[in-house]
C-alpha cells in the first residue's frame, strides 16, 4: 500500500488549495478514505472522510462549509479542496486508509496559511 499526497504550499489568508492523494496497492474503489492534519505541537486531527462510492462524506466542525473531500476511483485519487483558509488550518495534512485490519499513512503535505 502506498499513499502519496501533494498540493500543499504557502497560501494567504482566505485563499484556496487542493490537496491530492494518489493511492496504490489495494482496492481503492472499495475503501473509505480519510484526511487528517497535524499542527506543530498538537494531536493529529481527523479532517474529513469519504465513503468508497462517494455517497457520504463527513467533516470536522472546524472545516465544515470550507473544505470538500472528493475522490476519483478511476484515478485512485482522493482530494481535499480547501477554501477560505484560516491561519488555524496551518498543518501537515495526511491521507489515511484503514484496510483489512491495518492502518496506512502517506508522508504528508504541508499547508501554511499566512496572514
Mind explaining what this structure looks like?
- The protein has 115 residues and is mainly β.
- The chain has strands at residues 2-6, 9-12, 17-24, 33-38, 45-50, 57-59, 67-72, 77-82, 91-99, 102-105, 109-114.
- The strands form two sheets. Strands 2, 4, 5, 6, 9, 10 and 11 form a seven-stranded mixed β-sheet that branches. Strands 1-3-8-7 form a four-stranded antiparallel β-sheet, with no helix packed on it.
- The mean pLDDT is 97.
- The termini are far apart.
- It is globular and about 40 Å long.
- The radius of gyration over CA amounts to 13 Å
Shape verdict: globular
Give the beta-strand count.
Answer: 11
Helix count equals 0
Q: How helical, in percent, are the residues?
A: under 10%
Mean pLDDT: 97
Tag the structure with descriptive keywords.
single chain; 115 residues; 0% helix; 55% strand
Give a summary of the structure in a few sentences:
0% of the residues lie in helices and 55% in strands. By secondary structure, it is mainly β.
SSE topology sketch:
Elements: E1 2-6, E2 9-12, E3 17-24, E4 33-38, E5 45-50, E6 57-59, E7 67-72, E8 77-82, E9 91-99, E10 102-105, E11 109-114
Amino acid at each position: 500500500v502506498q499513499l502519496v499526497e501533494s498540493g500543499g504550499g504557502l497560501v494567504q489568508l482566505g485563499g484556496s488549495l487542493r490537496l491530492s492523494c494518489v493511492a496504490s496497492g489495494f482496492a481503492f474503489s472499495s475503501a473509505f478514505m480519510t484526511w487528517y492534519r497535524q499542527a506543530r505541537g498538537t494531536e493529529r486531527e481527523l479532517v474529513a472522510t469519504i465513503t468508497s462510492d462517494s455517497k457520504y462524506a463527513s467533516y470536522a466542525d472546524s472545516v465544515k462549509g470550507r473544505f470538500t473531500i472528493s475522490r476519483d476511483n478511476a484515478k485512485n485519487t482522493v482530494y481535499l479542496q480547501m477554501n477560505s483558509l484560516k491561519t488555524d488550518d496551518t498543518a501537515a495534512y495526511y491521507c489515511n486508509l484503514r484496510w483489512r485490519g491495518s492502518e496506512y499513512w502517506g508522508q504528508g503535505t504541508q499547508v501554511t496559511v499566512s496572514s
